Amino acid sequence: MWTPIALSEDVAAGTAAPARLGGAEIVLWRDGDGLLQAWEDRCPHRGMRLSFGFVREGRLTCLYHGWQFDASARCRLIPAHPELKVPGTIRANPWHVRERAGLVWVADAADADALPTLPDDTPMRGLRSLAVRRPRAAVAAQTGIGAGGWIWRDGALIGLHGADDATSMLHLALPQSATAEARRRTMGEATALRDALEAA
Amino acid sequence: MTAPAALVTDTAPVLRGWGLDDRSYTVRLGAALMGVGLAWLTDRRAEVQGPVLVRHGRDIVGVRAILRALADDALHPGWAEPAAEGWEERAAVIGERFSTLRRACLAAGRPETGSAAEAWTLLRPLEDRLAEQHEAGAAFLGGAHPAIADLLAFPAAALSHDLRLPHDLVPATRRFIRALRAWPGFLTMPGIAHYQ
Ligand code: FES
Q1: Angle at A178 between CA A173 and CA A181, to 5 degrees
Q2: Which candidate in A40, A130, A181 is best for mutational testing of the B interface (most B CBs within 10 A)?
């Protein structure tokens, strides 16, 4: 199953961002050219969160001891041993990742073929991701969002994922042609939806 | 872009603060970003009582009042601009309450029960405001230039994980942190890195 976990625009080029899916910690990062990766948020060296790291010259660098990982998830440099040819077995643990309709979608290896669950590729622009202090199942039941994790409502795409057992996140995107007024209105509606979900 | 050089002279204001205190950090950060020279005296009492600024022979207490005094000397007038819709007052309340909660958590050695819930209550209005500002094309609480309100809110935003509010749940706040961190002159404190 592909799951929406962030807005595309919330992972800027040359930066890393944290995400969680059902408690699993994920780092999303882009190189300077905008190529997106999703990996387990855990450095293979000593387990530091890679989302605390930084992106330089197409590599994600761990903040702790500076190990550098390229887009293939392989460790390419260990600064304490600069001459070392790093063994190919030292690598981060990647998720499958796609961008579609303004959102970032991830899947684990077993579910990566399930493409038909994604919405079509209407040109969309992310509006806002917002946390809801309710479990995913409760939010899905109240909003009618199915197992695919998304729904079209009033011209907006709403994605949903469970960050942990108690907290979900809604991800909203609108067609790129939406006016500023429509975006403002949908923003207000999203906040009201969140508040209603938490009050239920 | 480099930070404006902040000259520390004999007449520079003196901060009596504590290195691990987020309120003392707010003052150091404010002076650095504003380009105002600041002398520093370590005073452990600041951990509980908050920092004190000695300026022109007077003691100034309260982070907001200290930042207001520093903003008088700032090179850019944007620092002294009050944020719209009462956000300077609101950010001051968020900063103070966050600091109290964080001290309690650090003293206990772990986040206390309920602190995450209160962190949500404190930081959600900030997240909502920053999301609206971003949509309006502004990176900060009042506009495109940071001001005192942003400084007051910054430690609560950047250190929210100390109260078990992880940053994946607050993307607008994350964007705000990145924007202030990129501002010339930015300073770090333990728990807040400067690397992007
Ligand atoms: S933990 Fe990442 S480099 Fe050591």
Answers
A1: 105
A2: A130
Indicate yes or no: CB of B168 within 8 angstroms of CB of A127.
no
Give the CA distances from residue A35 to residues A7, A16, A74, B109, B164, in Å, rounded to whole numbers and listed in that order: 15, 12, 16, 40, 31
- Token code pair at residue B63: 């982070």
| Selection from A39, A70, A41, A75 nearest residue A56 by Cα | A70
The listed CATH number (1.10.287, 1.10.390, 1.20.1050, 3.90.1420) that belongs to domain B79-181: 1.20.1050
Number of separate helices (H) and strands (E) present in chain B:
7, 4
Q: Give tens-digit pLDDT for A142-177.
A: 999 998 899 999 889 999 999 999 999 999 999 999
Q: Which letter does DSSP use for residue A54 in this model?
A: E
A19 to B168: CB separation less than 8 angstroms, yes or no: yes
**CB-CB neighbours of B18 under 10 Å:** 19
Residue A48 in contact with ligand 1 by CB distance below 6 A: yes
A36 interfaces chain B, CB cutoff of 8 Å: no
How confident is residue B29, by pLDDT bands cut at 50, 70 and 90?
Answer: very high
Per-residue pLDDT tens digits for A56-99: 999 999 999 999 999 999 999 999 999 999 999 999 999 999 99
A64 lines ligand 1 (CB under 6 A): yes
End-to-end CA distance of chain B: 14
| Superfamily grouping for domain B14-77 | Glutaredoxin (3.40.30.10)
Q: Please, are residues A13 and A34 in contact by the beta-carbon 8 Å criterion?
A: yes
Interchain CB distance below 8 Å, B168 and A15: no
B136 min Cα distance to partner chain A (Å) = 9
Cβ-contact A80, A65 below 8 angstroms: yes
Q: Are A167 and B132 an interchain contact pair (Cβ–Cβ within 8 Å)?
A: no
Q: Which residue's alpha carbon is at the smallest distance from atom 4 of ligand 1?
A: A65
What's the gap in Å between the CA of B171 and the closest CA on chain A?
7
Tokens of A187: 């923003």
Q: How far is B88 from chain A (nearest CA, A)?
A: 23
Q: Residue B30: what are its φ and ψ, rounded to 5°?
A: -60, -50
Residue ranges of domains in chain A, CATH in brackets:
1-117 (2.102.10.10), 119-199 (3.30.70)
pLDDT above 70 for A114: no
